[in-house]
């Protein structure tokens, strides 16, 4: 239960809206319960759940592509619920970042969200995404460059992602 807010935040960053994110997390929780026997001791439980959310999301994207699904119409519904009593300046920043993330290729978006927002190391993110660590590093670097370019074009500021003293990316 304690992981649900983090899973929802990750799912929301992937899907772009709260309703789809909630559906994704619900499907992932159902799948994890059905496949609990596949969980291996020594594996981080949160990473295992993130991986399930991610694979569920990839499956949904592929299904939509095959079926030529329509664009989601409820994209911004309840989106600001996580912003709270923020100043107008912070709200603009939140909306700018949300919009910029929406323009990233899906694999880059997943990598940058895991590393920069969720605080995963590259190794942990690689485990969640099922790719080599170098691939995560490349995707994060590309995402940073694309975000920086978007902010250079739109506004004279950049999104800063730094490595803290703990060695975990933020």
Average the pLDDT over all residues and give the rounded result: 76
Order of helix and strand elements from N to C terminus: HHHHHHH
Global morphology:
globular
The tally of beta strands, per DSSP, is 0
Strand content: under 5%
Number of helices: 7
Instruction: Estimate the helix proportion, in percent.
Output: 55-70%
Q: Which regions have little confidence, pLDDT < 50, spanning 5+ residues? A: 68-85, 155-170
If you compute it from the alpha carbons, what radius of gyration comes out, rounded to the nearest whole angstrom? 16 Å
Largest β sheet strand count, sense and barrel closure: none
Spatial gap, N to C terminus? 24 Å
Secondary structure layout:
Layout (H helix, E strand, L loop, with lengths): L3 H12 L2 H17 L10 H23 L20 H15 L3 H12 L4 H8 L3 H22 L16
Task: Tell me what the structure shows.
This protein has 170 residues and is mostly helical. It is built from seven helices and no strands. Helix 1 crosses helix 2. It is globular. The protein starts with a helix and ends in a 16-residue tail after the last helix.
């Amino acid at each position: 239960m304690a992981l649900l807010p983090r899973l929802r935040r990750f799912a929301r960053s992937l899907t772009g809206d709260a309703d789809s994110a909630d559906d994704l997390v619900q499907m992932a929780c159902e799948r994890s319960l059905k496949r609990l026997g596949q969980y291996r001791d020594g594996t981080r439980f949160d990473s295992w759940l993130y991986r399930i959310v991610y694979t569920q999301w990839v499956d949904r994207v592929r299904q939509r592509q095959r079926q030529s699904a329509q664009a989601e119409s409820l994209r911004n519904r309840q989106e600001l619920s996580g912003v709270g009593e923020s100043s107008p300046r912070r709200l603009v920043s939140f909306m700018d970042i949300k919009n910029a993330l929406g323009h990233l290729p899906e694999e880059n978006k997943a990598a940058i969200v895991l590393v920069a927002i969720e605080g995963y190391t590259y190794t942990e993110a690689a485990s969640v995404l099922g790719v080599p660590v170098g691939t995560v590093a490349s995707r994060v670097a590309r995402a940073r460059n694309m975000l920086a370019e978007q902010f250079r074009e739109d506004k004279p500021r950049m999104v800063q992602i730094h490595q803290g003293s703990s060695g975990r990316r933020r």
